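Annotated sample (chain length 331).
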Amino acid sequence: MMEQITAFFGNVGSSGGLIILGIFIGTIMIVYGFFGGLVSADPVGRRYHAGRPAKRRSSFDAGLLNSADVDPKGLMKALMPQSREKRSQVRRQLMNAGIIGQNAVAKYYVIRIALALLFPSIYLLLLVLRQNTFFPLPDVIDGFLDGQSRLVTYYILTSLVIIGFFGPALWLRSKVDFRQIEISESFPNALDLMQVSVESGLGFDAAMTRVSNEMEMSAPAISQEFRLVQLEVSAGGDREKALLDMATRTNVDEVASFASVVLQSIQFGTSVSEALTTYATEMRITRELKAQEMANKMPVKMSGVMAGLMLPALFLLILGPIAIRWTNTFN
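Output written by the structure step:
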């Protein structure tokens, strides 16, 4: 095995060997940083998490006693951006995706760098195993690796590094978009349940807790958001700040408007039930107008598709016979 690895390094060249050696050393450092990032830097948080006998119901509970932004220490300084603004932006994206666990930003960057080193390492391992007769590779992989030049190998390694580093960022954006759509679609039902609960005699906090429990299976995203608001209020936090934080985490216009309506109703002493009823009616009208707007845009969008599909066939039917006659005449 060592002879095969030595032969592979000799084929790649001295510069390639240094690159590969750097990749493996970096992998070891990333693994060390990953396990270091899993340990909480806050002793109060460690005692709190170790003293809980029961498992949390969701990952949202893990972020209650964690500070919003902790400066990286040790090896994490090399893995995370030094700008507090950049870390806050990434943390906001993670919150919009529903990821607010302990050291979420540090784990996110550790995973990105680990994948950027893991994918090239796997490819290099396949190259080494291809030269070893004791571990035959499938014919598809062996045919793909057969006859590759050094330049193609470097291109593939570079592509794998880019995919491993920027892939989690693309996944995070898609996760944020999917969660926002889920919250936007399930929020009207949650608002109806909360309105019924308030009209039946429950308080606002009790109604939000009841809705969170009822929609835990059908709409887990909005259920987790409502539960987190109640956990922050129960821990002694301000209800206004908890609702505004929910609007920031979700980044959905309906939730932000809901927080504003509830806060204004509580501030001016008006009925919360009437405010929810009025807002539910306005939200349904807004959703209907958005649906009508999308329906009115469909003819314009379809015209381009129809023109692109029908014009080639139309030109073929019109100009085809003319082209045939022209060819026959001049031949």
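Annotation: The chain has two domains: 2-147, 179-285.
Annotation: The two ends are 70 Å apart (CA to CA).
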